[in-house]
Design a protein that fits this description.
This protein is an alpha+beta fold. The protein has helices at residues 56-65, 69-93, 128-133, 139-157; strands at residues 8-9, 13-22, 25-36, 39-52, 102-109, 116-122, 126-127, 161-162, 171-174, 177-180, 187-190, 193-194. The longest helix has 25 residues, at 69-93.
Length: 212
């Protein structure tokens, strides 16, 4: 399925514009219309679309290395399961002032081919880089920014989640608070053992031990 202005998601939300795109997916602004007493009001959220696999070439490579079609499906299914697991953890993080608020999600299988679209609905806030262009940061605000993001990372880590992709593009602003987003590059830890060894994140921001 293609996602663009006018596409309806979650039953009654409509995509109004695309606001970002990265290695892990596309981000859209979505709108819901509420009619009451012959008047209309609008509420807005952010929609992230994660497509697994990301491209036909990914399927081609896995298919060439697999013995049957079931193996191909199982290969990609494990990534869907991992993201759903992380979404469930995100729901547990809801309410922390420095972590984006999860609202809803949906998993849509592709018709007639291997693949899924994972739709993740979150609160819509101002991207840090956009906010910064109209706001000069002084030393006090830089220190607060660091404290906010550190608080988010510590809170997530105490619940078994390590973000792995902290960068300006993954910070948004809620009032005077810095908020961390984009947890789908995260690593889940259980009993101090990491569950995967995949290198994720953005070169230049990723922790050096990932490449050791």
């Amino acid at each position: 399925m293609e996602y663009h202005t006018g596409t309806v998601v979650f039953g009654d939300w409509v995509i109004v514009e695309k606001i970002g795109e990265g290695a892990s997916g596309q981000v859209f602004k979505i709108q819901k219309t509420i009619e009451r007493n012959n008047s209309k009001t609008y509420v807005y959220s952010a929609l992230k679309v994660i497509r697994i696999p990301r491209s036909a070439s990914d399927v081609y490579e896995v298919r060439n290395a697999s013995t049957d079609e079931k193996s191909v499906t199982e290969y990609f299914q494990k990534y869907v399961d991992q993201i759903i697991n992380e979404i469930e953890i995100m729901s547990e993080l809801k309410g922390h002032p420095n972590i984006v608020s999860y609202e809803d999600h949906s998993v849509i299988p592709h018709r007639g081919e291997v693949g899924w679209d994972i739709l993740l609905k979150m609160e819509l806030l101002i991207p840090f880089q956009e906010w910064q262009t109209n706001h000069m940061l002084d030393e006090t605000e830089v220190l607060k920014l660091g404290r906010d993001i550190s608080a988010a990372l510590a809170f997530a880590r105490n619940r078994g989640l390590v973000h792995r992709d902290v960068k300006p593009e993954n910070i948004i602003i809620r009032g005077k608070e810095a908020v961390l987003i984009d947890f789908d590059a995260s690593r889940i830890y259980k009993n101090n053992n990491r569950e995967d060894t995949q290198i994720l994140g953005t070169t230049g921001y990723a922790a050096p031990e990932q490449y050791g």
